[in-house]
Amino acid sequence: MSAGWTPADVGDQTGRSALVTGPTLGGLGFHTALELARHGARVTLAGRTPAKLDAAAEAITAEVPGAALDTLLVDLSDLESVRAAGRDAARLGPIHILVNNAGIMASPYRRTPDGLESQMATNHFGPFLLTGLLLDQLTASGDGRVVTLSSQMHRLARSAPLADPHARRRHSRWRVYAQTKLANLLFTFELDRRLRRAALPVTALAAHPGLAGTHLAVNGQLGTTQGRRAAILDAAVKAVSQSAEAGAWPTLMAATADLPGGTYVGPGGPGQASGPPQVVDTTALARDEMAQRRLWETSEETVGLAWPARG
Asked: Per 3-state DSSP, what percentage of the chain is helix, strand, and coil (rounded to 5)?
């Protein structure tokens, strides 16, 4: 089924509601939201910058006249902003699809208002909290699905991020980024297991875009020396990568195809760099149930939310 999967296989999403984080114009989240809207879903664009959300909504409406769109302000690096977004999202009603797409890559060292390293906060702790706050709405849909974006970079993580997240330690931007992408998988697999134990009608899956031409590496760094270096890296990546549109296909497949919880979807070409999406593998560390459970417990303590109860 998956070998030749394309967005034409998304199917009719009329009557279904989706929330996509990080829908910046031209990026993976944008193309994910666009295709879901094209197939009839009501899509909420969730991000931290009103002007960027408006630009994305305008571009989607230009391609899909009459698209049912909403916006939600949230800064995933700030846990209080995530809590506020969770309260605001109550107006959206049941949510069938949550796509945890937003993230930053190899950003300079920065501590968030909560005392967390910025990449881990944005890529893991923020999405962890947001998903928990939206769990009742996902459950209310009767067929909820959480899709979290990881990366092939998870393969470079040599250990799970289980230390005290508030502790200061020697910082390596790429090491931390790899650990955040591992965290995305550990979270997904533990979440799906807990959902099944709690007998909730929600599944958790993960996806990765392969080598996709986005501006993730310069996110939040424009105007800095690091930003200029990241722009050079982005240009190099774009020269050898598939488009952001194609990079969104694994996410769309994970969000809409008939797949069991705990599935990981990525490009099917050589090295999983590009090509039609299919079910792919992970490292053994990503499947380590003890690491999954320990990260979950650390995350609950860090964000102040325990969910769902273990069966």
From this structure: 50, 15, 40
Q: Helices 126-133 & 173-197, crossing angle to 10 degrees?
A: 20
**pLDDT at residue 192 tops 70:** yes
Mean pLDDT on 268-282: 94
List residues bridging with 212 in a β-sheet. Answer: 242
Strand partners, 147: 99, 205
Do 31 and 59 form a contact (C-beta atoms < 8 A)?
A: no
For residues 95, 101, 103 and 105, what is the CA-based torsion angle, rounded to 10 degrees?
170
Given a contact cutoff of 8 angstroms between Cβ atoms, the answer to whether 36 and 23 are in contact is: no
Please give the model's pTM, rounded to 2 decimal places: 0.91
Query: Nearest-5° angle of CA 69, CA 128, CA 112?
Result: 95
Each residue's pLDDT tens digit, 227-262: 555 555 555 455 456 899 999 999 999 999 999 999
Give me 129's structure tokens. Answer: 């909290």
What is the rounded end-to-end Cα distance, in angstroms, of the chain?
33
Cα 181 from Cα 127, distance rounded (Å): 12
pLDDT beyond 90 at 179: yes
**In which region does residue 271 sit, left (phi positive, over 0), alpha (psi from -120 to 50) or beta (all else)?**
left
Q: Are the beta carbons of 141 and 17 closer than 8 angstroms?
A: yes
Q: What is the distance between the alpha carbons of residues 306 and 291, in angstroms, rounded to a whole number?
A: 17
Burial class (CB in 10 A: 0-12, 13-18, 19+), 59: middle
Catalytic site residues? 177
**205: which strand partners?**
147
Closest CA to 275 of 242, 251, 244, 234: 242
Predicted confidence (pLDDT) per residue in 55-79, tens digit: 999 999 999 999 999 999 999 999 9
Judged by average pLDDT, the poorest of 98-107, 138-147, 210-219 is: 210-219
